[in-house]
Amino acid sequence: MRVQDQVRKELAQLDRPAHGGEGWRLEGVEDFSANLNPYGPPEGLEERLRQASAHLDHYPDDSSSGFKGALAGHYRLGPENFIVGAGSSEIIRLFPEVFLERGDKVLMPRPTFMEYSFACRFMGAEIVPFELEEGSFRTDADAMLSAIGPGYKAVYLCTPNNPTGVVTRRTDVLGLARGLEELGVLLFLDETLLELTPGEADLTCAREVRRHPNLLIIRSLTKSFAIPGFRSGYGIAHEDMITTLDRGRQTWNLGHLEQEVSAWLVGECQGHVVRAVEVLGKERDRVHAHLSRLGARTHRPDAFYFFLDVGPSGHDGASFKKEMLRHKVAVRDCRSFGHPFERYVRFCVKTPEKDELLLTALDATWSKGR
Fold it and tell me: What is the pLDDT of residues 161-184, one digit of tens each?
């Protein structure tokens, strides 16, 4: 017997999504391919981990009550409005496992985070791409709503979008949610990168979930606290949505260590995030001005990372990434997002000191390709 012959056909047709954030493989390289808090993890994290490790001889609280309580206090919602997971990636997988069936249609922007389509296609759903206009990459919520027809089960939206860095206004998101609710369609909203985006308080839809039972928002501690190796994320939704998702959740999906430390991060370390947002907004504008002087065709992102067409430099994304590595800077080659994005790269900004290294590498790489 060949094991491959027993695999469900959906998985047999899928390739695993590609991601950035592999700078750890490269000694002496500054990694700009992962969109993280530039100040690293908050002070005191190691001590908090040590303290929490004293209780690893017990099973974790399956309800994650302490973590949910911290989230409820931060967002001024109830614990019943949250579900937690081993990173937002667990909830990205859980949502289609609970709600999608073979043959359901899902409307999804292109380009966007590739884990969404993988998880939906794994459950047999059909992905219908909503092509974002190259250049501005703005999401037209009205056009998305107009695209919905028979057989649609869900719409996906990421704000700021990954990889483009473009935000969808809260009024547009909530208008889309209302329209989809009338049609009986769910809205999956990824705000994972919004917390590090300037103006987050005026952009988030988190406190609106009680009014929109078809809306699920996901967030993560990964980016805000620069802890990608520590898997902790959460979903925010109407209590009916949370109850339904929780029925499909894996038991003990978040260990005691993750629960204790996550509650501390949310409840006591928000100043660490605020500090980062202040510098990221300024550095985004500085790097955008520098790219404009180089002659790059790039929009000013709403977020703190750039989706850059490197075609005018004479490079494609792969060769641009290779040349940047010669200058000890890692960027994300975006060819995995499909045509025409093989000529794009994505990179974040960091602190002023680290961004000097980025700017020097950009200068050298841009001029060499011409």
Answer: 999 999 999 999 999 999 999 999
Q: Which DSSP string corresponds to 203-248?
A: T--GGGGGG-TTEEEEEEHHHHTT-TTS--EEEEE-HHHHHHHHHH
- pLDDT at residue 149, as a whole number: 95
CATH of the domain spanning 57-269: 3.40.640.10
Question: Could you please report the per-residue DSSP string of 105-153?
Answer: EEEEEES--HHHHHHHHHTTPEEEEEEPPTTT----HHHHHHT--TTEE
For residue range 8-19, what is the model confidence (pLDDT) as tens digits?
Answer: 887 777 778 777
Domain boundaries of the chain, sorted by first residue: 3-41+271-365, 57-269
* 42: amino acid identity, one letter: P
- Cβ neighbours around 139 below 10 Å, total: 24
The model carries a pTM of: 0.94
Give the CATH H-level superfamily of domain 3-41+271-365.
Aspartate Aminotransferase, domain 1 (3.90.1150.10)
Question: Is 30:354 a contact under the CB 8 Å cutoff?
Answer: yes
